[in-house]
Design goal:
- 2 copies of one chain form a homodimer.
- Chain A is an alpha/beta fold.
- In chain A, helix 4 links the parallel strand 4 and strand 5.
- In chain A, helix 1 packs across helix 5 and helix 2 runs parallel beside helix 3.
- The longest helix of chain A is centred in the C-terminal third of the chain and has 15 residues.
- The first copy, chain A, is elongated.
- Chain A starts with a strand and ends with a helix.
- Chains A and B meet through helix 1, helix 5 and helix 10 of A and helix 1, helix 5 and helix 10 of B.
- The structure holds a DNA duplex (30 and 30 nucleotides).
Chain lengths: 221, 221
DNA sequence: TTATAAATTACGGGAAACCGTAAAACGGAG
DNA sequence: CTCCGTTTTACGGTTTCCCGTAATTTATAA
C-alpha cells in the first residue's frame, strides 16, 4: 500500500472526504493542498528531499480566485508532475463525465485511474487506490460503456476550428479569411461547407445549432 | 442550534463531508440519504411521528441510476418537502454557479441558504448552518456579485422554446407549425424572426450559434 | 362603442447558407 | 516528368434566413 500521498482538490468538502478515505485505508502520511501550484511545489520538494510522494490524487478543474496561479487545471499539473517524477502514480478524481476527456487523460497524461464523483465515489476511490497499489490500472465503471458507443464521427482540428468560429459569431463566408490568417491549410469556403454538411450527415443533424450543442455536451468546444 | 438534520446528497464523498461538518457542530442526531425519494419518505415519517427534521441539506442535481425515482432533482424534493412541512429550513449545497438558477431557488423554492461547492465550502456550510439556526437567511458570498451583473436580456418562455427547437434541428420556417400544435400563442414566423434578432441585438451577438452556446452555458436550455 | 396604442402577422427584397457539379491543385507511384 | 487518384476550390442555382415596412389583429381606456 502507498505510504506517502498528496491530495490536490480545491473543494474543501471533497478534500476532507478524500482525506478520510486515506485514513480508512490506514494511510497516515499524506498532505493536501487546494491549488495546483502548491501541489507541484510539494512534489518537487519531496523529490529533492529523496522522499517522493508515491501517489497523487487530483481533481481536473480548479477554480480561479484571488491567488494568481501558474497551473490552471489538473491536466497541466499532471504534466508538470510527471516531468519531475515519472514514477508517481496518479488518480484523477473529478466530476467530468465526457468520455473523450477521460479517454484523453489515460492516453495523453498516462494516468493510472479515473474515479468520477458520483453516488459511490468514496468506495470507488478506495478500490482504485487498492488496485493501483498492486500495480494495475483502474478504469471507472461507468466509463467502459461510454467509450464504446460514440465514435460516430471523428472530429478533426479543422472541424473544431470551424465550429468554434461559428460559436463565436463568425459568418460562414468569413471563415476562409480567419483560416488564412492563421495559416490553416484547407481554407476554401467550399471545404468549410463540405465539412459542415458532412458532420451533420454523420450525426444525422439538420442544423448547425444542433451540431454546436452536441459538441458542447461532449466537451469538444 | 438544530437538533435533527437530514442530508440528501447523491455523491458519497460529499455526503460524508457534510456529515463531518454536522459532527463538528456537535449535531449528533442526523440522517443521510442518497436519493430524493428516500429524503421525502424520511421527512414525511418524521412529521407523522411528531419528530420532524428541523433542517434539510440537499444537493440540486441527482444522477439517475438503476433505481427508478419519482423525484428527479433537489428542486422537486424541496417543493414536496415544503408541502409536507412548511416550517423546515432548507440549505442547498450544490456546484451550481449559474445566477439565474440560484436566484430561482430563493425566489421560487424559498430556500434559506445556498452554499456553492467551492474552495471553502465546508467552512461556508458551517457558517450557513449557524446563521440559519439564528433565524437569518444566508446568501453565498460569490452570488452577491453574480446577481447584479447580467440581466442583459430576460428570456421569455417563447424565447426558450424557440432556442430549444433550433437546437433540436427544427428549421426556423417550420417553428410556427410546432408552436401552433402546442397552442403557443404568438406563432408567426415574423415574431420568431423578431425575437431572435432582438435577443442577438441585446447580447451583441451576430449568429444563432452564439446564442445557443450562451444559453447552454447559462443553463437556459 | 370607438379611438388609440401595442402586439402580431404578412409580405418582399437582399444576404447568407446549402448542395451538386466541375475545374484546379496537390501528392505519390511508376 | 507523367499519370492517376485524392483533395481542395470555384461556380451557379435553390433554399433558408434576415430585416424593414406595412397591414392586421388584439388589447386598453375614454
Amino acid at each position: 500500500m502507498f505510504e506517502k500521498v498528496l491530495i490536490a482538490e480545491d473543494h474543501e468538502s471533497t478534500n476532507i472526504s478524500v482525506q478520510k478515505t486515506l485514513g480508512d485505508l490506514a494511510i497516515t502520511q499524506y498532505d493536501y493542498v487546494y491549488y495546483c501550484d502548491d501541489a507541484l511545489l510539494r512534489i518537487s520538494k519531496s523529490v529533492l528531499a529523496q522522499q517522493p510522494y508515491q501517489l497523487l490524487i487530483t481533481d481536473i478543474s480548479f477554480e480561479e480566485d484571488h491567488r494568481e496561479q501558474k497551473l490552471k487545471n489538473g491536466i497541466e499539473l499532471i504534466m508538470k508532475v510527471k516531468a519531475v517524477d515519472p514514477t508517481i502514480k496518479v488518480i484523477v478524481f473529478s466530476a467530468e463525465d465526457r468520455p473523450n476527456i477521460i479517454e484523453g487523460l489515460f492516453k495523453d497524461q498516462g494516468i493510472d485511474a479515473y474515479v468520477r464523483k458520483a453516488r459511490h465515489d468514496a468506495k470507488e476511490l478506495k478500490l482504485a487506490i487498492e488496485t493501483i497499489s498492486k500495480g494495475k490500472k483502474h478504469l471507472a465503471n461507468q466509463l467502459r460503456q461510454g467509450v464504446k458507443e460514440k465514435n460516430l464521427h471523428e472530429f478533426t482540428t479543422l472541424d473544431i476550428t470551424i465550429l468554434t468560429l461559428l460559436s463565436q459569431g463568425v459568418l460562414q463566408k468569413d471563415i476562409p479569411l480567419y483560416l488564412q490568417k492563421n495559416n490553416i491549410k484547407p481554407s476554401g469556403l467550399s471545404t468549410i461547407e463540405k465539412r459542415l454538411s458532412h458532420m451533420k450527415e454523420m450525426l444525422e443533424f439538420s442544423k448547425n445549432e444542433q451540431l454546436i450543442v452536441f459538441c458542447k455536451d461532449l466537451g469538444i468546444i
